[in-house]
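Final report, closing paragraph on structural work. Over the funding period we assembled a curated collection of sequence-structure pairs, and we close with a single example.
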Amino acid sequence: MPTHTITLDTVGLLAAGEHGLSAADLAAVDARLPALRDRLQRERAAGQHGYLNLPGNSPLLESVLEACQPRLGRFRHLVVLGIGGSSLGLRALVNAMQPVAAPRVDLHIVDNTDPALFAQVIARVDLPQTQFVVVSKSGGTIETVLALGYFAEKLRHAGLSLVDHMVAVTDAVNGPLRRFAEQQGLDTCEIPPEVGGRFSVLTGAALVPATMMELDVATLMSGASRTEALCRSGDFAQDWPARLGLIAAELCRRGKSQLVFMPYSSRLRSVSDWFVQLWDESLGKDRDEQGRPAVSGQTAIPAAGATDQHAQLQLFLEGPNDKVLLFTRIEKHELDPPLGDFEWGDFDAAFVKGRTLGEVINAQHAGTAQACVERKRPNATLILPKLDASTLGELLMGLMSATTYAGFAFGVNPYDQPSVELGKKISRRMMGG
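Its predicted structure, as stored:
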């Protein structure tokens, strides 16, 4: 049985006194895990929690590789048309997995209806050297449809074939994008019907463009599989996703209505943005699972260490004590250069001589965590032994699982988003649709 490489350090919760959780509180959380895991497996067998099946879905990964393989090395630009879960997950993958060297393919993401964004992309790409990937689970997301129409017309006016320059990622059977793709003869990949958009990072939604960027998606899925196996039948003490979801919900019940997600890594900064959508859209509900009125949710706030020590940390430490901070720390940083014989003493920084940048940023995390303790601000840390494709897969799958467990604790359905759909309907009426 594989084990998690990621661990959850809860010392900062214990040390926060009345603003955190006691050892007895954490033991009570752990006591709930067996029953909730049983519930998860029963509901999964009934067709729910479909994202958990993705690491074992070999045909899906094969279809991604089949669609991408003939296109590898043929294009200089990759333009992804998608919004929300159709773009945030891709950004998380690319920023975390992209090699240090300049990429061979330039990525452009169209995730807004801002006309300046459209103009910027069309000015920067060479259409004959550009591959488009259009992503929409429903196939009718208005922002994505607008981008599809705009760029499809640009290709046609340039005398270029949509078949050669466009791939669609959408529902396997239904929706306008599926029909369009079939009518135009486009290559397609599916987002399984049981997987919602914000849980789709391990589907073709992100895997198709990531593969075209030549990222190691097979190893990514292997790491996700490790988390799925442990959340299904592994040691409860290692089940950090379940513990994280329940701990966050319990702290919310005690007044910590905001969850700061703060990785100490620039490569994980986009994971913060992805997590905000995952957490906020899944848990912010005004009805419980039985349809009864409820007030549910905990606002996720994106941050990045050490950058936001000079931006948001003042608020976190001295503002309202309504937050729990979740740090992410990488024990061994890739390409960790030592600091040499610069005149460090002239800047009152002689203590860094002979250290590495990885040692410095980890000390900055430790200092921030201790400052939180001294100010009675509850905090916990996800510790990654390193950041590679496998560990990233484990992290993303774990955060999705944590969201499901938080949904259990809040008593809400984490997979719908009724008010988002309401806003779309209102906007459509305002445009005469």
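The longest strand covers residues 323-330. Residues 153 and 296 are 44 Å apart (CA to CA). We thank the funder for supporting this effort.
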